[in-house]
Amino acid sequence: MADFEVAEITKGYVSIPKLKEGTMAHSQPFIAKEKFQEPLGYPGELVDNWKEVVIDKLKELSSKYRSLKVFLDSCIKCGACTDKCHYYIGTQDPKNMPVARQDLLRQVYRYYHTFAGRFFAKLGIPGFVGARELTKDVIDEWYSYFHQCSQCRRCSVFCPIGIDTAEISMAAREILDQIGVGQKYCNEIIEKAGRIGNNLGLPEPALADTLEGLEEEVEEDTGVAVKYPLDVKGADILLVTPSADFFAEPHVDGLIGYGKVFHEAGVSWTVSSYASEAANFGMFIGSYENMRNLSLRIRKAAQDLGVKRIVFGECGHAWRVAYSFLNTLAGPFDFLDPNYPVPQHICEFTYDLIQKDELKFDKSENDHMTLTFHDSCNVARASRMGDEPGGQFKIPRAVIKAACNNFVDMPEDTIGEATFCCGGGGGLLTDDLMELRVKGALPRATALKHVTNEYGVTHMAAICAICKSQFTKVLPYYGFTMDQIVSVHQLVSDAIILSDAPKDDEEAEETDAA
Amino acid sequence: MSALSVFYTILFYAAATIFVVGLVYRIKTYAQTPAPLKIPTTPAPVTKSGVVFRLFTEVALFNSLFKSTKWTWLFGWMFHLSLLLAFFRHLRYVLSPESVFWPLINNWLVLFAGQYGGFLMLIGLIGLFGRRIFVDRVRYISAPSDYAMLILIFAIAATGMLMSFVNHTDIVQLKAFAFGLVTFNPQDMPDDALVLIHLALVATLMIIFPISKLLHAPGIFFSPTRNQVDNPREQRHLADWAAKLDADRK
User: Which of A86, A478, B37, B78 could form a disulfide with B124 if both were Cys (CB 3.0 to 4.6 A apart)?
Assistant: First the structure.
């Protein structure tokens, strides 16, 4: 099946492997060509004075980001993070230990920007204090290993100083972009989203066509004319959802679910063709400017359409950018209804209705499944839902349980704040990194196997477009099938009782029998 | 004053200057470097007092490290606790018996804990050193300076304990020297080899503090993943350089 070795899951728990040097040194994503670099403000190919640019940029970034400065200075090499990265667990490559990954950048920082590094370099032993001269090899290693970090922040939970490798890998990618060594997958997508409005490059007619198709499908299925509106001025709610929701499986089933929830809530809503993307890959490449440009599209769409609220669909990093950064990047949103948080997560929206008892479910519709829930890293460790810390764990589970009878959690140390990344986040969801993606999914696959064997779990629900795409692709390598991954709002969609639905035959028969 | 005492006096003033100036400079840099985005590791406190509590659990109890690995937590926490105990015990060298703080530090508890805490320190350091050698992952990430740092602190603790338990030095003279230093009235020091080694190593530690990973001490207080309030939707967070970008926006 694969041209690399895939581990067989024999134990029900994640074990920490011995390190094996260089197992992933060959892993590099495709480099971005000029046409994807320049629209983002980056040089088209490796610049001649790359060394100078890297050294200067490193200094500049560490003076613009306190996180970077403090994290580069403060690591004590205690080892707390060394066994926490899913890529280390899956590949055994020591450079995939968070601290070792950080050190690839920190060594250069120490060499050029610290007294200790410069002093020991003069003595001819920079390695004594972990400093290293910048060479082309270093750039190669950066390109390789900073594209083996999904920026999931699991390491940051366990670091006694709170060092977050995501911050380091974002900075490294920004520096690489600045010298003309960008990653094709991310930069191509950012260019498209910035020009057309979504990552897939779907123009307005294609979106209109898709949404119309959904309306027909849902009406055929339920007998109810649930609307999936596009560019409707004056709607209450602007829905911003990952563009994968418009066509990919199981994503689209989630979108169908959002529509049904809005329908039941009796609110008017719309998708915007101008800002038809929740995802924001500007974050993955550590570019404040690119992240901001994409976020401003959402602000403009909300203003142009005159909506009162913004709701985000199921997407992990999108929710991080939305929840944590949107107000900063594109706020203030004082033109929206102040009675609702800006933005709101679709799970928060649905949860509120469930709390108010305004949604009715026939849970038995989901009885053929026993579910578990995959906490997406950016939702779990970089955002929140609801008013209380930890709402991001409670609310999606409450939504699932409202729609399903059978729910079991995976082991404690693989969910919640300790959740394992799907292996495809952080701008790595590309076929040229397939080996990394499969190996990085090992811890999650192990936990899933455990609850499959112990509790007969049949399906895993997720609230992230990347997680869903990644799992449908890589879980088959571990003996699962791709349809075992479902959207949370797909469960809602299947169980929700539409109040204006015509009584169908089956129900009529049951009534007769009674 | 003997030449040796003059040398040590100068050494300590130099070390203290580097320590204080270096640390102030670092803290100033950290405080002035903007944090443009809200990045607390969540679940995070939603209030300022919650953040204070979170930082307290991190600084006093090493909460995150406890979640990570119990052995490193045990050795690390033991070591840092004993540092605190040793610090209090050493205050008697630089405080006057007339000071209002004198009874607080010159009592059985502080002196006993400070003295026997030395064993905790040695055990903690040996444990941390052992992890560097025996755990393949920790060995891989260790630079020579990481071992050197542990050895340096171990030597400080060991010479201190030798003076405390085995080979007592002229404590009256030592106090005169230390008190002279802090009151800018330099005095002779006992020319005892253990004292000389102990003090030279302490001065070394002070000098490398602001230029090494020992910066984790101030660093943790400035770590945005730990010190930020989780309220990005309620309150717009904007750094100065980011605000400038907004100028050309409608």
Answer: B78
